[in-house]
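Issue 218. Parser rejects a valid record. Input:
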Amino acid sequence: MKKIIALLLTLVMTTALFIGCAPQNALLEINGKKTATLEEIKFFVYSFELQVGEEGMSEPNPEGEGTIGDYVRQQAMDTVIALNLVKHVALEKGLKATDAELKKAAEDAEKYFSQIDPEEAKAKGITKELFERILTNYVYYDKLMENLIPDAEIDQEQLKSDLQYYEITDNKYALIKSKGYEEAAKKVTVKHILLKTVDENMNPLAEDAMKKVETKAKEVLAKAKANEDFAALVKEYSEDTGSVSTNGEITFGRGEMVPEFEEKAFSMKDGEISDLVKTVYGYHIIKLEKASLKPTAEEIEVVKAYEKEIEMNAKRSQKGMKFQEKIEELKKEYKIVINDKIWNSYEVTGQTKKDAAKSTEKATEAVTQETSKPTEATTEK
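Output the parser choked on:
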């Protein structure tokens, strides 16, 4: 689950921007307007830390001096500077989010925030409201990018190449292109038991531990084949924390599970119990509850929307690279000043104070620009 959140946060980090009234303890000023808070920095540091872990933050920085912690700290600042600058420009241009876009952002915020452990969220200062602001401003980012870089600038050959890459890396998109919408829209409902052969960091267990898991999995399989209560077996043995609360039951479509699990589930009959299915997570025992039926028109529309989203993402990726160039140009047009008192007070895991001081000086020099005619930012209502 943490990997899902990390990927989401990484995406947000490269595309989102914040909105709201000018904060009292502002971290930045853009043309004299106070903007951004230290909480925004902490959010992005958290998203990086999810990917490398606390121990990884103390590892040497492959991009330069200091540690990963030093790198993460500076990357978070660079991100917040860029995103708040984009927000400033978007508001100047009067770009507005629709009610439907705002509603979707709120719904997505609720969905993704619910997947974070409450204690961890509290410790890291991550709130649902912060999530919602980020996702809302993803809309604003896209609007400004579309405004500055229209589809007419898309390189069609590059787009074709990017979509071919998606066909290789995205199982669901590949299925849509090879089998069509109806096959891609099919779903099955199963109950399953997982006995893990990896630790919480997805590292394989030692050989002797692996053999013990296999032996135990065979014992559980024998009980399942002997028609012992499957829900009770799930409760006693399954290590898939995401499905234990539903007696191991999950409903999924093509391209949503690891290949071995999906292939077996879609080949079974109602009530059938599989032999052991080995995946990168461990040994699975699958009981098919409901075989795939002909999908409804609504389910097919969902698949079509997924295809459209992939193709839009490919365009967005290409535009994003050009948009970064636009952002660098905007940095030269606006006066951006860092509040050193707030910035210097903030330390992250694995950070070295010496390198933190250097990065602060570098960041301040990089973004403090004087303009001949400062632009007044529009205040969001």
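Fixed in the parser; the record now loads. The first strand starts at residue 28 and ends at 30.
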